[in-house]
TrEMBL record:
Pfam families: adh_short
Designated name of the protein: Alcohol dehydrogenase
GO molecular function per UniProt: alcohol dehydrogenase (NAD+) activity
Keywords: Oxidoreductase
Source organism superkingdom: Eukaryota
Originating organism: Glossina pallidipes
Any single GO CC term annotated in Swiss-Prot or TrEMBL for this entry: cytoplasm
Similarity remark: Belongs to the short-chain dehydrogenases/reductases (SDR) family.
Keyword field contains Transport: no
Amino acid sequence: MDLKDKNVIYIGGFGGIGQKCLQTFLKREIKNLIVCDLHDNKEVLRSLRDSYSYSNIFYIPIDVTKNESIEEAYKLAAKKVNKFDVVVNGCGLMNDSFIDLTIDINLKGVIHSTLKALEYMDASKGGRGGVIANISSVAGLQPNGMFAIYSAAKCGLTAFTCSLAYPLYYKYTGVSLITLCPGFTDTTLLDSVRGKETLTEYAEPLAVAFAKVKRQTPEICAEMIVKAVEISKNGNVWMLDNGEMAEIEFKTFWKPKLNTQQ
């Protein structure tokens, strides 16, 4: 996908990776950028508007834990720019002491947002297709003992996104769904993780190892995210780690056996 003059919605745009993604999208000379987040960040918006005058930049509040807030955000976005070409679901929380909130933000909110985005983007219903990019994690590719609840949510997100990328759906919607799994990235999400683990009383050795893991910069991560959107191959799962993009292919463990006697 050539991003020039496209309309982009970024949910969770004021996060550490999100802010760098906003800049990277704007460098592609997109037409409209809608930033959705729980709270406004006027300083970031002012800086973006000063630096990227080619694009129109809007802010719409959203609480991804509330479905009615998601619906209202998309309704307002449609009023501002009419059609969407790219939606990035980038909200995240890594704190297993908040079980329900971890699931709500990392999984349920993205599910509701994705389904709502499809309603507007579906080419068979008047949309013009496009790309929905859901940001999972390397913890969404395999089990993670330190953050079991976070990992469960992210693995669920990976499975959900891959499931909706079923070729039959794409044939009608024209919407590519891709899953992005960043490795350790130097943002506040990884700050002060002690006490946020699933089983904190046993996690000290894990926390020591966690602190030693090499991290990539949010700028590098953002560039890979935008590149994956530009590639926009339906069903792609990308691991974005230490500045390298690796396409992940999952092994098929089960296939249904058809009853040939019916």
